Amino acid sequence: MPRKSTSPTLTPRQMEVLRLIHHYRQRHGYSPTMQEIGDQLGLTKVTVFEHVGALERKGLVLRGAKHTARSLRVCPDFTFPEDDQPGLPLVGRIAAGAPIEAIEDRQSLDVEGLFESSGQTFALEVVGESMIDEQIRSGDYVICRKASTARNGQTVVALIDGGEATLKKFYKEGNRVRLQPANEAFKPTYPQHIDIQGIVVGVVRRM
To answer: Which end of the chain is more exposed for a tag (fewer CB within 10 A), N or C?
Structure first.
């Protein structure tokens, strides 16, 4: 049976509700409540009921038997627009040197067969030479698994003070974090705030 494409009558707000249900269920294993959907999207509970009802009528949202709580799910035959792109999402560039402004620039890097792409993997183009001793050079693509925590010694993608993005080795030292470059020409940094976005699991290089 062919998969359904995005309906031309789907409003932007209905798409937001659909995505929220899908992503919430992926993270938690159950769907959000109407109140939680409203809180996330800045909508009243009544408005959420209207959008969910419209999505049900279009066959894009299904409910459990007898409207069981937290039983909403997206029709398995529905394909979100970005799911039609092959390969891993290429979401931008990452600094291996001085941190750079975090800029998302969605394209697609087709390395299918090399790394599992289950929605938890993404690619970043490296800018800078601070990780060359780990064989990560400027112009390479790092393949990353989404994660919010890391073990000492793992190479991470992180947002640090002011929302800057950087690629470094992670070390927790007491009450502080050290981000260590793999190039003796660069000094380690000790950010006040850090938000880990992913852990590097591979490198792709053009020859």
So the answer is: C
